[in-house]
Amino acid sequence: MSREPNENRRPLTLRDVSEASGVSEMTVSRVLRNRGDVSVATRERVLEAAKRLGYVPNKIAGALASQRVNLVGVIIPSLGNLVFPEVLGGISDGLEGSGLQPVVGVTDYSPEKEETVLYEMLSWRPSGVILAGLEHSDAARAMLSNSGIPIVEIMDVDGEGVDSVVGISHRRAGRQMADAIVGSGYKHIGFLGSKMPEDHRARKRLEGFREGLAVAGLDIEDQEFYAGGSALAKGREMTQAILERSPQLDFLYYSNDMIGAGGMLWCLENGKRVPEEIGLAGFNGLPLLDGFSCRLATMDACRREIGLKAAEIISGMPHEGVIGGERIVLEPKLEWGDTIRKR
Amino acid sequence: MSREPNENRRPLTLRDVSEASGVSEMTVSRVLRNRGDVSVATRERVLEAAKRLGYVPNKIAGALASQRVNLVGVIIPSLGNLVFPEVLGGISDGLEGSGLQPVVGVTDYSPEKEETVLYEMLSWRPSGVILAGLEHSDAARAMLSNSGIPIVEIMDVDGEGVDSVVGISHRRAGRQMADAIVGSGYKHIGFLGSKMPEDHRARKRLEGFREGLAVAGLDIEDQEFYAGGSALAKGREMTQAILERSPQLDFLYYSNDMIGAGGMLWCLENGKRVPEEIGLAGFNGLPLLDGFSCRLATMDACRREIGLKAAEIISGMPHEGVIGGERIVLEPKLEWGDTIRKR
DNA sequence: CTGAAAGCGCTAACAA
DNA sequence: TTGTTAGCGCTTTCAG
Q: Are residues B187 and B243 in the same domain?
């Protein structure tokens, strides 16, 4: 295929293709968008010219003229936590075939950064926004409700959303885990988590967990928090620390699977009998951990499905008109694994 | 702060702010971009009006008019592999303060998808593109060289780049690992990797590895490949399989740390003496694995630094003019861990 | 320091 | 089936 390397360093325009093919700009535009009726002959001439020149359309101009942008903003706290790439996978799948493309922004769990990222995104006039959590700054919430586009808040349903909401109840998840633990006869419970005041979902899980324990007249007897570093390694350290300080503990509830796995490794290597002597549980259901010979009890957070549903809400949105305001509550299921004794 | 919820669902324009503040659109624009000289009085009036209305500028129009877009396209094969989020972290850091924002596209290791993603990205006229690897379809390569913007190919330096290149030599990395293994006296070597013809970096590592073995008159005696699933679990299965088939093996080289860790767990649980009876090594230096009591030998792939350098090349680019064509070769370093015997 | 005019590259709407 | 006209909302440029 002959190709004319664009010498003059000026991005090609529709006009260049128009001239090269001897067809009006408008018709070229129609061909390139598969729009309207164009004769096979002209279509081919145009496509040939476009390909030969190496024309790449300018979506900026297109978006401005058509008032439509095929982008969906996705705002998440982090990429390092495997949970979010999985949600993204679900979003990609849900957007498949809709002509929409996700654009990702990361907040590092900072409300200020969330506000900035949101502002940047909205300034590109996306077709919709998907963002994690229900807690946002007032300014962010105002931007969202003024945006006039579909908004889906994901992961969490414990609270009020701006528009649509898809997620699980972390409060209930914590509570269910407490019920399971209490039901299995454990009595002395410790909690290990990350030191993140901004991780509202972890906080709600803990609250629900304590509510569940309270029903049985129990409470957390000791706790340990970490920040930064390798979660697996932190899990080990914290487990050792908490058990040295509170040797009476017979159950450890971790705020995520990664530190839970670290704790599990420590227990196994240090001769603790799991789950008889001490029970363990995490949260998320990361497939990553399938490779351990002892499976940590956990709770699937429906990550992929959350992304999928959120994307479907955005892509299924009526082009103009009524605001959706859907609310989808998914049910996480407890995976018992090998670290809670049955009875 | 009083706020007038935008009733009419029409995105606000500069004109709205102009009318609300009694200042020309042009001056409003100047204030909002901190450009040119504007009196303090008007500046404040404008900012107040913009905030009160909840104005969000339209970057589409801005970009079209100014012919400048503060976006950098980043194209990577996957987000599920922790390596790439880390590279992204480096890119974010490197772009910090430049006013540029990364926009991520994912290819799933498919050249066709890479081509599509690249085309989409270029159609937004970004200020630069960072993409993983040196292998691209002809069409992709043509788009890159015709784009007229700085391009940085990252991760790999074994081959020709379109413009700038930042990475490590995977061939050399494989070779260095082979040298270390041979030097430690291992003689019967197996290889375990993923079944990905499109993962050129893994392929080059393996080639370099075999070259290194060849120097000592050795070659791989058996190999095992996987696709999909939990890498940790696959590592276990493959390790069991290869050792049952070829019990003479005294070293296993894994194409990534995750399957390596799975293999290590299997060996430890099945009474293999590591590293005396059998040595193990992976690739990447994932901090994830710090939590294991036995540290897998590996090689740091300089993920973060690669991202940082790439971003610096883009953001440090002279606004117009000469094409950079920088070439930065980073040196991965061998981390011996506990799974190669020393001598 | 502020404003008016022109136009970025494309597409909606209409005309032929 | 194809072409023409008039903007999209902003910034550049130049004039006050």
A: yes
**Packing angle, helices B59-66 and A59-66, rounded to 10:** 130
CA angle A141, A143, A146 (to 5 degrees): 105
Q: What is the domain extent for residue B86?
A: 58-168+304-331
Is residue A133 domain-shared with residue A71, that is, in the same domain?
A: yes
pTM for this model (two decimals): 0.94
Protein chain B, residues 92-121, with a C-beta closer than 7 Å to any atom of nucleic acid strand D: none
The torsion angles phi and psi of B282, rounded to 5 degrees, stand at -120, -155
Strand C atom within 7 Å of B67 CB: yes
Q: What percent of chain B has pLDDT over 90?
A: 87
- DSSP code for A288: G
Stronger pLDDT, B48 or B10, i.e. the higher one: B48
Q: Which of A60, A80, A292 sits opposite B265 (nearest CB)?
A: A292
The answer for residues whose C-beta is within 8 angstroms of residue B337's C-beta and 6 or more apart is B281, B294, B295, B296, B297, B298
Q: Of A81 and A190, which is predicted with more confidence?
A: A190
Same domain, B114 and B232: no
Q: Contact B206/B170 with Cβ under 8 angstroms?
A: no
Nucleotides of D under 7 A from a protein CB: 1-13
Two structure tokens written together for A58: 């300018």
Q: What average pLDDT score do residues B225-248 get?
A: 95
The answer to whether A56 touches A11, Cβ cutoff 8 Å, is: yes
